[in-house]
Amino acid sequence: MSTENRKLINIATAGSVDDGKSTLIGRLLYDTKSLTTDKLEAIERNSKQKGFDYLDFSLATDGLVAEREQGITIDVAHIYFNTEKTNYIIADTPGHVEYTRNMVTGASTSSAAIILIDARKGVIEQTYRHFFINNLLRVGHVVVAINKMDLVDYDQQVFEDIKKDFEALIEKSDYSEDQVKFIPVSALHGDNIAGSSEIMNWYQGPSLLDYLEALEIDEHEDNSAARFPVQYVVRPKTEAYHDFRGFAGKLYGGNLSVGDEVTVLPSFTTSKVKSIHFFDQEFEEATPGSSVTITLEDEVDVSRGDMLVKSDELPKSEKQLSATICQVNSKPLRLGTKYILQHGVNQVLAKVDSIEGLVHTDFSGTEETEQLKLNDIGKVNFRLSKPIHFDPYGDSKSNGSFILIDEASYDTTSVGFIQ
Amino acid sequence: MKNTFVPNPKEAESIHIIREVAAQFEKPVLMFSGGKDSITLVRLAQKAFYPAKIPFPLLHVDTGHNFPETIEFRDKLVEELGLELIVANVQDTIDQGKVQEEKGRYSSRNSLQTTTLLDAIEAHKFDACIGGARRDEEKARAKERVFSVRDDFGQWDEKNQRPELFDMLNGKIHHGQNVRAFPISNWTELDVWEYIKTENIKIPSIYFAHKRETFVRDGMIWTASEHVYREEHEEVKERMVRFRTVGDMTCTAAVLSEAESLEEVVDEIKASTISERGARIDDKRSEAAMENRKKVGYF
């Protein structure tokens, strides 16, 4: 598969309503020739129908009737395009405050974010929120696209002022200056999107696409040791594989090799990796992101939800948990509420022990609260029915995050980032 | 040098999803149309559970208007891999008086499939249906979750979807609900073709250029068949064509092509300026054709 030699970059977009996110994505698709003739014709037709004298690229991404009706993005859309070098997946997330949860959703799988700012409006409250979420989720790279430069006469001073305001935000965050890039653009006219702008010749940096193409992404963004949560026990019970008992899962963190001493969590029994299988082949070593099947030397008890780790690199195992929570459901999180906590593929029961505070998304600190409402971000302590085996979110996105599931509705109500 | 396994990220993600379906649900089924996407799903499912067999059956909703080559391929594949196949016939649903055959110029059994599918889900008590839909296919599909909860009427509530974070999938549902699971959500058409090529996966012959009796309507090439409505002035001609997507004859248009090998097919897809679903007659019905079908239970 040629995606093996093309890198994959997941990008989330963020911006307020009418900042032009959908237009920017449409423009990227258009300029990289990713829009097929029939889709382009549909855009032309619909733009004309709506009486626009320009191409409304948002029509390429707003897929729901309710979205086209209102001209807004309600839910995350995933947009795909390829260049010679890279496969891109863009999570186009809504800008409305009430859809913050969808922004968190989009950012959770992304290694880069595009934050749009309307050049006429500059840094606004929504910008804080967008940047804060990227900071919280540790999205590795942020590009701030200062859009609608055409509406401020392509004025360099406007760009510099917004950049300065934003740099004050960076200082309050965990980001370093070199993780954040500023680009003046006009999505509508295509300035600095896929090619450099002739009008803004005061800007010498890369276009948005050039910047993305040059990004060096650490695909797994995981500083943890090898973590292998067991998804499924493979027991063929056929003549050829009568005694085969393999543990299927996806490897996170570090590599795992045949012969490695491993500990099975939660039982803490130990064994050695006997073989590593992928389909009809065997390997001596698996790298992070591998959906492989592993067998062990000894007949140890391993079931779904258990985790295999190297014996000298154990994660934390605790029944108490402190985490930053983002509430993604309209049912508020309150003191004493019980949830099903899903950590990777493992599920335990969790009870809200205390709510430390509501976190302000403008980096100004926390305030006391009794509950977390939809789209709130807060610090919460939990008590668990059984220990889970985790790394801090800063070390491992996969082993340091969890979701909470409502016991009655089964809805996903919250996402947590373990401290 | 160690023999080290380096994953293809999209393949690894799909296998992860398929295993979650098998682990989280009691009675999953893989929706199999005989098209390239569901064939890819079968290969991914093989990889997910190897050396064990795929632990769920295949379900084919047969409109009765399928290309014979597809049906032949389906039966051979099932036999070779020792899989269980369940066929649900749209004809039965028509005979039961639950749906009515469409008439006229654009008559198709495509939308009738929904009722047959929902009946099959109910009859077999399937709680998860694995499908080969991809988000790049169509803009309503771009909004779809990997685990998409449907109510006991099979309905999709597009404004109230469960957020999906990282690769944690919440498959908890109430009795009567079902989940549509889409393991190759993040693949593009080109990804699928390149995968089929690299893996050397067998596909039905209609994907390669062949001579076929066709006629042209609305700029699209239709198959001339007893199942496809045709007016007298619509002239049938033999053309060298292939198919990019396989629905049944009444909703899938052919494209002119000389591509006879997988290499040539991949090159053709790369050079094409028309989207895959540009040849789907069922999508041309209205701007929201897919969304409307999905809302009532189409896969």
TrEMBL record, chain A:
Gene3D superfamilies: P-loop containing nucleotide triphosphate hydrolases, Translation factors. Residues 6-219 form the Tr-type G domain. InterPro entries: CysN_GTP-bd, CysN_II, CysN_NoDQ_III, G_TR_CS, GTP-eEF1A_C, P-loop_NTPase, Small_GTP-bd, SO4_adenylTrfase_lsu. Its EC number is 2.7.7.4. Signal peptide: none annotated. SUPFAM superfamilies: EF-Tu/eEF-1alpha/eIF2-gamma C-terminal domain (SSF50465), P-loop containing nucleoside triphosphate hydrolases (SSF52540), Translation proteins (SSF50447). It is an enzyme of class 2 (transferase). It holds the Pfam family GTP-eEF1A_C. The keyword Secreted does not apply. Keywords: ATP-binding, GTP-binding, Nucleotide-binding, Nucleotidyltransferase, Transferase. One of its GO terms (molecular function) is GTPase activity. One of its GO terms (biological process) is sulfur compound metabolic process. This is sulfate adenylyltransferase. It comes from Echinicola strongylocentroti.
UniProtKB/TrEMBL annotation, chain B:
Transmembrane segments: none annotated. It is an enzyme of class 2 (transferase). GO terms for biological process: sulfate assimilation. It holds the Pfam family PAPS_reduct. Residues 28-253 form the Phosphoadenosine phosphosulphate reductase domain. Its EC number is 2.7.7.4. This is Sulfate adenylyltransferase subunit 2. It comes from Echinicola strongylocentroti. The lineage of its organism: Bacteria, Pseudomonadati, Bacteroidota, Cytophagia, Cytophagales.
